[in-house]
Amino acid sequence: MKYISTRGKGVAQSFEQVLLTGLAPDGGLYVPAELPRFSEAQIKSWQFLSYPDLALQIITPFIGDEIDKEVLRRIIDESYAEFDNPEVAPLVQLGAGEWVLELFHGPTLAFKDFALQVLGRLLDHVLIRNKQRVVILGATSGDTGSAALEGCRHSDRVDIFILHPHNRVSDVQRKQMTTVPGDNVYNLAVNGNFDDCQRLVKAAFADQSFLPAGLQLVAVNSINWARIMMQIVYYFHAALKLNGLTTTVSFSVPTGNFGDVYAGYLAKQMGLPVDRLIVATNQNDILHRFISSNDYSVTDLTHTYSPSMDILVSSNFERYLFDLFGRDGAALNDFMQRFGKESLHVTDEQWQQVRAEFDSASVDDDTTCKVIADVFHSTGLLLDPHTAVGVEAARTCQQSSKTKVPVITLATAHPAKFGAAITAAGLDTPRLPPHLQDLFEREERYTVIENQLSAVTQFVQGHVSK
Question: Is the pLDDT of residue 350 over 90?
Answer without folding.
Answer: yes
